[in-house]
# Entry
Amino acid sequence: MNRLESFLFWSTLSFEIALCGFVFTRKVQRILPLFAIYTYVVLCGAIGVWLTYEYFGFYSLTSYYAYWGSLLLNAGVRSLAIAELCRYGLRAYRGIWALVWRVLAALSILLLAHAVTDAWGQPNRVAIYGTTLDRDISFASIVILAALLIFRNYYGIALEPLQRAIAVGIFLICLVDVIGNTILRSIFTGYLLAYFLSNQKTLWDALSPQFERVRDMWSTVHLFSFMISIGIWCFALRKPVPAPSENPVLLPTEVYRELSPAINMRLATFNDRLVELLKP
Amino acid sequence: MNELTIVVLLAIALSGILLWLLIPGRRSSGANASSLPSKVDDALPTAKHYAYFPQIRQALSVADSNYLRETAPPHVTKQALRERRAVARGFLKGLHEDFSNLAKLGRTIAALSPDVSREQETERLILSLKFQVLYSLVWLRLSAGNLPIEQLEHLTGLVGRLATRMDAAMAHVSALSAGQLPGSLGT
# Structure
């Protein structure tokens, strides 16, 4: 590892240790177990990758696979944390939750299927698969988070401060990953493609410095955004986590059954009148 | 447009939506089901602007316009008509608020219902979106001066009747949910 890589690695690891400390002391696992697991997985992944670097060497093939493997593992566990965020607080509103989870699940399946087909069509190299999958999973995460917030806003069910901070942090990571991975993929499949092809070995030495430069730049941006997100989460966890709000007491089913069609009918009449108003 | 441009534009658009939705304390466009007070009567919205229509009608009557045209100098008439349009726009805005409150009632009931219909919710969403578009068009026509103010009376009559029915509906909700909404709900 060069000096920049060492600095980024150790500072990210420090942030991750601090976050895990906060998560553990604030007992976040009681409210958001999947988010707690995500933070632990991120820390364990970083330590695992570091051990691989130490044991096999930074430029070894094993380290290369370990890096991309940990990146995709993080994206997978982060998706579970997002799913938990979707479920949290909304599940108590049984009626709309039944509606919302189906929409979010359909959206997730669609976006993940897109991610798989997108990666399938790429040249057969781990780095290109990795950037494509990571980019598409991050994009799916942003869309799911946006859909969740739109639903919550529409029905007036606000996110609690900790959950909001988690959403902001995940969103920042995903946003940087989407843009960064798109640029990285276009470079990998563009002028650096020869670096990944075994029949172009003669060009590897010439392309190696460029590959390293691109990787360093991407690592810097990616890890800085990651540290900012961890900072946001640590800030949200600086105070004890308040107890989850009590479940709402729901209205009898007849209220919705009787009033909802009546309201819709009147809203439709109102629109009809507006249309009449616009007729010449 | 290449892939990068599309992705960056999409990411920026989604970021905008997310940040807009995440800003704390922003006035929610939806019914605030999580902070519903203890009494449904206090929580559910009622139409109120339509109640001022008689005064507005008086101020914006055709007789008034004709009198102005006959007696006042052209520039005064023009200014007066412009101001009348502004008043009508303000009133239309109030009617929009009444409509939004009534739509909010639907969303609050849905949020607090143990079972909701997908068709009903989709229909309400489409109706609300359609209303936004139609309202903008009416507002534009009113601003352009080619919408007779008298036509607002029909609209107002409708909102008035709607509000009366909703008042009755709210009383019905209160009766059905009597004693079921705790004082600490969502607080």
